[in-house]
Records
---
Amino acid sequence: MKKILSILAIIILIVLCLFAFTSFGESPAGSPEPEGKIEEELKVLLDSVISESHVPGLVAGIWAPDEGVSFIYTAGVSDLETNAPMDEDMIFRIGSNTKTFTNTVLLQLVDEGLINLNDTLSKYLPDYPRSDEVSIEMLTNMRSGIYNYSESEYFSSKIFEYPTTFWLPKELIAITVEHPYYFEPGKGFHYSNTNTIIIGEIIEMVTGNSLESEITNRIIDKLDLKKTKYLTGGTEIPGYHPKAYYTGEYDPDFIECSEWLDCSWAGAAGSAISDIFELKTYAEALVDGYFLSDELQQHRLKGHEMAGSDKKYGMGIFSYDNFYGHNGGYPGFTSLMMHSSERNCTIIIWYNCQLDEADPTMLLPKVAKIIYPDIE
């Protein structure tokens, strides 16, 4: 029990967003890189994930039409008991990619003059500690300093003991009230799911509608997405999906967890589902500026440095080279969603597991380098 709880405490801390950049598939010293077409090199890289780690299965969609690339690939299994293969049409939990949806709705309200990025949190949650020091923009770019509820020992123990508990956003926010800020608001960076949970609450206050309806009406329906859903609660993944495994550490005895937790624990920060094709449509609209005014879109993409990382984090979005998007982790699932308007390239990769040793984000530099050798 203590071992599992300690694992959960670590994983829930980072469960919705992972930023490691170790690459699989590097050639041994003195060995040449695989020869052949881009697709063949991508296949070698992806196959190495299955052969060199405990990842059960993966699905990848990589599109770079200017380079002649339209690559859809599956590897491994969707069920460790039956050895059923992975399927490109499967739905998966997208974790923190959900944050891009929530922040997009907020920024649309900014464009509509209903919210000002310079407003302070005190306008919406006046009783929250130091709320007069936190701007709305700080919530979007993880510079508020507000404590991450999913780092709480209380939360970690509760979610394990009572996995089907339905969490209200106000309950998640309440967990953080007694915890000090990580730093003076605006003076640092700390990834905190609480920021996006609060944004979801602000959206509902301003619009008078549920976050689910705002995301559905403003994004999902506008793009005619059929499999993408913002889930408000429950353990079920509606639709065709794989089994899912692990919460950070490889443990073959750990339960299959695709439908283990009530997704309300992640809410505005990570409860959505989709597939690779609909995420492609969404990522391209997100980065190409479909949802926002040109001025606000450029402001959104302007990221801040993150210590120890080669990425920048903007307003609910991160960048690597000239790729923009997000990643996501959820017990049993990890994913990456990136698009470059400049290069006309989209990368969607997901695994049916959550492992410290292997995450789709680790592949981003390698995939980009295979397609674009000029990337540093």
Note: The first helix runs from residue 2 to 14.
---
Amino acid sequence: MINDQVTLHPFILYFRDVNSKLRSHSLCALSNYLEHNTSVVHVFQTYVVKYIKHNLPKVEKLVYFSDGSGSQYKNKKNFVNICHHQKDFALKAEWHFFASCHGKNACDGVGGTTKRELSKVSLQRTTTHQILNIDQIYSFCKEKLRGITYFLVKEEEIKETH
């Protein structure tokens, strides 16, 4: 039996509630598309922006923070994406970069928790009930891991979008 590999792309959403209290929510895109590039990040952004518009309809601007990964964020394609963010998502945006390889942040906790829980439950299951593919991973995460909103982004969607 062969198991599939999966890309996890975590996001932390920080926002102020109606009482101006700072809140956060964890999000994570799961995909069976394994390339890590700007086009994939853009597809993941569509899910995050849709979530924000549905749950926080008064948001007018997004401020992104990421590391300086050249393949995903700190490159000319991503700068073009930011220039077109208003047109693509009907929200203003700006992007800030942390220094590359400079420590961990809250997003690493989202990915780490997801991987740890998947590994733990997989080890506890019998050989006939292992979690082996993207659909099983998404189903487990959505049903069992509270406090993180998961998005399933299939390889086919990424390929047809870009």
Note: The mean pLDDT is 88.
